[in-house]
Amino acid sequence: MKIKSIEIYGFGKWVDKKIVNLEQIQLFYGENEAGKTTLMAFIHSILFGFPTKQSSDLRYEPKISSKYGGKLVIEDDRYGEVSIERVRGKSNGKVTVVLPNGQTGSDNLLEKLVYGMDKTTYQALFSFDLFGLQKIQRMNKAKLNRYFLSVGSLGNEQLLKLADKFQLEAGKLYKQTGRVPDINKKISEVQNKRQQLRIAKGKNDQYTQIYFEKENYEREAKEIRETRTKNEAHLEQLSRLAANWSYFSEIVAIQEDIRKSPIKNMPQDSLFQLNHLNQSIDQYKTKIMQEKERSKQAMEKSHLTKSQALFIEQKEEIQRILSTIDSMKAILQEKDFLEREVKKEMEQILRNKLQLHLTIGQQIPTAQTAEQKKDYQKLYQSILVVEHALQEAIEKKTFLAYQENSLSAQIDKIEPDIWTNHLFQEVKRKYEQSGNPRHDSDQSRLTKEKSFDIKVNQSKASLIGVLGASLTIFGFISTSQFGFFLVLSGIITMGLAGLFYFKKKPVKTAHEDKATETYADYIKQIELRKQWRTQLAEIDQVIIESKESLETIEKNTNEKKELINELSHIITESGYPENTTIESLVHKEDPFGSLRERVRAVEEKEELLDQLSKQLLQWKKQTQFLEPILTLDWEHYPSVIEGITKFYQESLSDEQKFLTIQKEEESRQKEMKKIVYEQRNFEQQRMTLFQSVEVKNEEDFRKKFILFDEWKRKKARLKLLEQQVSEDINLLEQFRDKEDLVEQMYKVKKSIELHKVSEETLMNKRIKNELALKELEKGGEYSVLLQEYANLKSELQELVDMWSTHKVAAELIERAMTHARKNRFPETLQDTTKYFELLTKGQYKQVLIKEEKIEVQRRDGSVFDVLELSQSTAEQLYVALRFAFVKNATDSVKLPIMIDDGFVNFDHSRRMQMIELIKQISETTQIFYFTFDQQYLTKFRKDQIEML
Fold first, then answer.
1. What is the C-alpha separation between 465 and 830, in angstroms, rounded?
2. 947 phi and psi angles, rounded to 5 deg
3. pLDDT top residue among 846 and 439
4. How far apart are CA 440 and CA 313, in angstroms?
5. pLDDT tens digits, 202-227
6. Contact 80, 74 (CB under 8 A)
7. Could you tell me which of 44, 129, 35 has the C-alpha nearest to residue 948?
8. Helix crossing, 158-173 with 182-202: angle to 10°?
9. What does the pLDDT read at residue 447?
10. Are 817 and 160 spatial neighbours (Cβ–Cβ below 8 Å)?
11. What three-state secondary structure class fits 498?
12. What is the mean pLDDT of residues 633-662?
């Protein structure tokens, strides 16, 4: 039995509570007062009834609901899923049991479901708690051994308690050397009274003599009555024999006739055999004539056409072809199905190709090899390196262009303030003539710097133009998302280059400033020219580095072009779409894998289609010999199959007609031979029948059979008569005639009458003696003592009966326990050893039985009596015995186990071992474990825990 769900209408604190999907092992967790014990009592009450109001058990009637009771849904191996509902009612409540087929029952059906077990027995066998474990420590050595033996044999200690109770009650009534027990006292009283009676009886000799005479009369009367009864039975038998004497006379006469009759060897059904043989012989003669006439008519009808002859000649080949038609139809159906599937798959392949940017006629790229994957990775890394270097060069070039522009702006800012070379030379000569030696050199340098200035501007514009063109080209060939911005930057840069190239600087004329320049202005011009030359030197360096950056950009651009070309070559060679990027080849999964699988599946189907077509063609070649006689569309296989099938059926019908006629004729000839054989056989049987009764012909046979029939009737009459007088047939031989029988009957009647008279005389004497004894007993001392003695014996017998009842009950329980140990205890002991070893983590290896006591063997070989074990180890042994008994009782009783925090005194290690054992037992028996210990919550699955 397994409890699948619990529904409580009202029970204690629980009202309208439903718990479903209960597992094979179910943990009910809740703090104190959470209702664990109430829930356990609810299950007991549904299965075994509510406690009565007079009972000491709590009834758990709800305080806040008028409903009382609930329902359990169980799974039973014998009945299936069963619903058990118990609500308020008379006595233990009203119970309703509903079987899967809708059949309902009550207490009788529920008793079958719980295997006839009551609540007390169930709690003793399948339910235990901490109190059961604590009782172990309060027992002495002998009691502890018997306790464990009882638990291991019968699963609980209740019968052991009951046996001890009976023994205790018996000890209160009688002890062999005691004086206080009731039976001991009563025996002493009886012995004293018997002594008094013996003394009183010795004083009354007359009473004793009359008493013995009465006993003799009773014995003689009994013997006479037995003899009379035998004589009456004998007389009854003789009377029956006299009444049936005529039957006996007839039996003797028939026996004499049979003895003298010569008819003894004729079968009883011989006449029937003869008539049957004659009838069969006549029937066979008629059949022979009929079959000859049919044979003549059938030979005139048989004829073969040319088509039928061809069919018969090639029948085996046609049948072989026909036997393959079903397979050909299957091949055609499969071919048609495959063609549709191939068409559908090809359409899907085309759609997938377009989705993957492949052209319709383009081959599907092959799967990447590991080597190719490495090459793609290497190429991808090379492109990244080149792009990174190119990016750095472009960034450097951009910075140099910015630096160049900045220097150019500074120069442009200085240049408007610088005098022309002519003006500077004139001013220089003026001040040199006045004693300034630096004038000539400055004038020469100014001329050179002016020409260099023009060249610098042109070079700067050219470099900026080359940079813009490079950026534009690099942007067009770039595959990254920055290509557009590079193109735009290049165009803008080229525009700036044009502006620089055609830019003209304002030039101051000599006549404009000649008259106004002072010596301070001259000195300032010298400083400006010095700054200007420094900035020109810096811009020269920037221009050189710009050229180097341009060369680097060009180099990296060419390298990238080569790598891009290599990538394009790989894409072209491998058949990838044009938009395939190196990133997708390296990082993404192969997008063409499923497409290749689909194409491979189509190729396999096409290959299978080709095989099927070959099979059809081969089959068609085998049917070529039928082309001259069948007008069909031989290119259309269904028409060929239908035509051959129709031809076969028609030809088979024609052939069948011919073969039927032929077979009928063959069968007719065989039948005629058989008929002739049977006719001769019957004739031979008839002759054998004549010989068996020693006659030569049928006439003599019939005459003899009449005599045999008469003999048979006498035999039957004799058997009937013998059955009617079978009881007295042996007695008949004792009498010569009926007169002898009548005489014997008279003697027996006379003896019976004498016995009646003697019996009546003895009865009268016995009655007189009884009356005399009663007279002697009235009012006398002996009669009083005799009555008191009888009363004491009666009282003693009652006590002895009570004592015997207790002793016998205790003995029966002990025998039951012994029988249980013999039948179940070996297996139980074996499982106990296994469980005890698990609970003690291998500390104890074996549980032994020696001289009706339990011992355990430790891992080191030491053997201990149970009294020598620690409290916790003894408790583990008790649990192992209980679980072992439950496991070995599942063949006859399957009920769930309920444990109410039975292991709170176990340490952590022992509790963990206990959980392992509970899980093992739950494989065959459902277990409900009620606990408040949170440690258990981590040891079970969520679906195995019910939080209360």
1. 101
2. -85, 125
3. 846
4. 138
5. 556 666 777 788 788 888 888 888 88
6. no
7. 35
8. 30
9. 45
10. yes
11. helix
12. 79
Q: Quick check: 733 pLDDT over 70?
A: no
- Sign (positive or negative) of CA dihedral 732, 735, 738, 741: negative
Alpha helices in 725-870 (DSSP H): 738-777, 781-823, 825-839
Amino acid 818: pLDDT: 60
Whether the CA torsion 115, 121, 124, 128 is positive or negative: it is positive
What residues contact 888, with CB distance under 8 A and at least 6 apart? 824, 827, 828, 831
Sign of CA dihedral 102, 106, 109, 112: positive
Q: What percent of the chain has pLDDT over 70?
A: 81
Decide if 99 contacts 79 (C-beta within 8 A).
yes
Helix (H, G, I), strand (E, B) or coil at 943: helix
Amino acid identity, residue 514? Answer: K
What is the distance between the alpha carbons of residues 624 and 511, in angstroms, rounded to a whole number? 123
How big is the CA angle at 129 (ends 127 and 134), to the nearest 5 degrees? Answer: 135
Q: What is the pLDDT of residues 520-567, one digit of tens each?
A: 888 888 888 888 888 888 888 888 888 888 888 888 888 888 888 887
User: How many angstroms separate the CA atoms of 705 and 441, rounded?
Assistant: 184
d(CA 377, CA 845): 65
The closest alpha carbon to 741, from 400, 284, 357, 241, belongs to 241
Mean pLDDT of 75-99: 90
pLDDT tens for 241-269 read 777 777 777 777 877 777 777 666 677 67
Positive or negative torsion for Cα 212, 217, 220, 225:
negative
**With contact defined as beta carbons under 8 Å apart, do 461 and 429 qualify?**
no
Does this model's pTM top 0.70? My answer is no
Asked if residue 760 has pLDDT above 80, the reply is yes
Question: How many Cα neighbours within 13 Å face the side chain of 400?
Answer: 23
Q: Is the pLDDT of residue 419 over 90?
A: no
Cα–Cα distance for residue pair 64/47, rounded to 1 Å: 24
CB 705 within 8 A of CB 270: yes
Chain centroid to CA 551: 79
Q: What is the mean pLDDT of the chain?
A: 77
Q: Which residues contact 571 (CB under 8 A, 6 or more apart)?
A: 577, 578, 580
Residues with Cβ within 8 Å of residue 673, at least 6 apart in sequence: none
Residues 518, 365 contacting (CB under 8 angstroms): no
- Inter-residue contact 281 to 679 (CB < 8 Å): yes
Give the whole-angstrom CA distance, residue 886 versus residue 927: 11
Q: In whole angstroms, what is the distance from residue 867 CA to residue 202 CA?
A: 62
Q: Which amino acid is at 339?
A: E
Gap between the terminal Cα atoms of the chain: 24
**Which residues on adjacent β-strands are paired with residue 129?**
900
